[in-house]
Amino acid sequence: MVRASSVAIGFVFGLLVATAPALADVTVAVGHSSFDPATVTIKKGESVTFHNIHEMPGGHTVVADDGSWKSPPLKLNEDFKKTFEASGTVKIHLEQHPKTTGEIVVE
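The structure corresponding to this sequence follows.
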Protein backbone atom coordinates (compact mmCIF):
# COMPACT_ATOMS: atom_id res chain seq x y z
CA MET A 1 0.00 0.00 0.00
CA VAL A 2 2.83 2.44 0.85
CA ARG A 3 4.59 1.63 -2.43
CA ALA A 4 1.43 2.33 -4.47
CA SER A 5 1.01 5.71 -2.72
CA SER A 6 4.62 6.63 -3.46
CA VAL A 7 4.18 5.76 -7.12
CA ALA A 8 0.97 7.82 -7.31
CA ILE A 9 2.62 10.84 -5.65
CA GLY A 10 5.58 10.56 -8.01
CA PHE A 11 3.25 10.38 -11.01
CA VAL A 12 1.27 13.48 -9.93
CA PHE A 13 4.49 15.40 -9.23
CA GLY A 14 5.81 14.43 -12.67
CA LEU A 15 2.63 15.73 -14.31
CA LEU A 16 2.91 19.04 -12.44
CA VAL A 17 6.52 19.52 -13.49
CA ALA A 18 5.81 18.52 -17.09
CA THR A 19 2.90 20.98 -17.42
CA ALA A 20 4.52 23.94 -15.61
CA PRO A 21 5.38 26.74 -18.02
CA ALA A 22 9.10 27.01 -18.64
CA LEU A 23 10.73 30.35 -17.97
CA ALA A 24 12.48 31.85 -20.97
CA ASP A 25 16.07 33.00 -21.07
CA VAL A 26 16.63 35.59 -23.79
CA THR A 27 20.19 36.37 -24.92
CA VAL A 28 21.24 39.87 -25.93
CA ALA A 29 24.53 40.32 -27.78
CA VAL A 30 26.55 43.24 -26.42
CA GLY A 31 28.75 45.07 -28.92
CA HIS A 32 30.67 48.35 -28.98
CA SER A 33 27.71 50.28 -30.32
CA SER A 34 24.71 47.99 -30.11
CA PHE A 35 22.54 45.58 -28.19
CA ASP A 36 21.17 42.84 -30.44
CA PRO A 37 18.25 42.79 -30.14
CA ALA A 38 17.92 46.36 -28.80
CA THR A 39 14.49 45.64 -27.34
CA VAL A 40 13.34 42.38 -25.79
CA THR A 41 10.00 41.46 -24.24
CA ILE A 42 9.85 38.93 -21.42
CA LYS A 43 7.47 37.90 -18.64
CA LYS A 44 7.98 38.56 -14.92
CA GLY A 45 10.44 36.06 -13.47
CA GLU A 46 12.25 35.51 -16.77
CA SER A 47 15.90 36.37 -17.40
CA VAL A 48 18.03 38.13 -19.95
CA THR A 49 21.59 36.98 -20.55
CA PHE A 50 23.90 39.68 -21.85
CA HIS A 51 26.72 38.16 -23.91
CA ASN A 52 29.70 40.35 -24.85
CA ILE A 53 30.74 39.80 -28.48
CA HIS A 54 33.46 42.46 -28.79
CA GLU A 55 36.87 42.85 -27.20
CA MET A 56 37.06 45.96 -25.00
CA PRO A 57 39.90 46.87 -22.64
CA GLY A 58 38.30 46.62 -19.22
CA GLY A 59 35.15 44.97 -20.65
CA HIS A 60 31.61 46.20 -21.34
CA THR A 61 29.28 47.02 -18.45
CA VAL A 62 25.49 46.91 -18.93
CA VAL A 63 23.70 49.48 -16.74
CA ALA A 64 20.03 50.15 -15.94
CA ASP A 65 19.36 53.81 -16.69
CA ASP A 66 17.67 54.23 -13.29
CA GLY A 67 20.82 52.96 -11.55
CA SER A 68 19.05 49.98 -9.96
CA TRP A 69 21.62 47.42 -11.23
CA LYS A 70 24.63 46.95 -13.43
CA SER A 71 26.65 44.03 -14.68
CA PRO A 72 30.29 43.48 -13.87
CA PRO A 73 32.62 44.44 -16.75
CA LEU A 74 32.19 41.68 -19.33
CA LYS A 75 35.23 40.52 -21.25
CA LEU A 76 34.93 38.97 -24.71
CA ASN A 77 32.51 35.98 -24.62
CA GLU A 78 31.54 36.54 -20.98
CA ASP A 79 27.89 36.54 -19.86
CA PHE A 80 25.80 38.31 -17.24
CA LYS A 81 22.33 36.96 -16.43
CA LYS A 82 19.69 39.27 -14.93
CA THR A 83 16.26 38.08 -13.77
CA PHE A 84 13.41 40.61 -13.87
CA GLU A 85 10.71 40.30 -11.20
CA ALA A 86 8.68 43.49 -11.76
CA SER A 87 6.57 44.56 -14.73
CA GLY A 88 7.59 47.63 -16.68
CA THR A 89 10.18 48.86 -19.13
CA VAL A 90 13.83 48.94 -18.07
CA LYS A 91 15.99 51.23 -20.19
CA ILE A 92 19.65 50.16 -20.40
CA HIS A 93 22.94 51.47 -21.77
CA LEU A 94 26.61 50.57 -21.87
CA GLU A 95 28.71 52.36 -19.27
CA GLN A 96 31.65 52.59 -21.70
CA HIS A 97 29.45 53.69 -24.65
CA PRO A 98 26.51 55.68 -23.16
CA LYS A 99 24.87 56.20 -26.57
CA THR A 100 24.49 52.42 -26.89
CA THR A 101 20.97 51.91 -25.54
CA GLY A 102 18.28 49.28 -25.32
CA GLU A 103 15.27 48.27 -23.29
CA ILE A 104 13.80 45.26 -21.54
CA VAL A 105 9.99 45.14 -21.54
CA VAL A 106 8.71 43.00 -18.68
CA GLU A 107 5.05 41.95 -18.93
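The first helix runs from residue 2 to 19.
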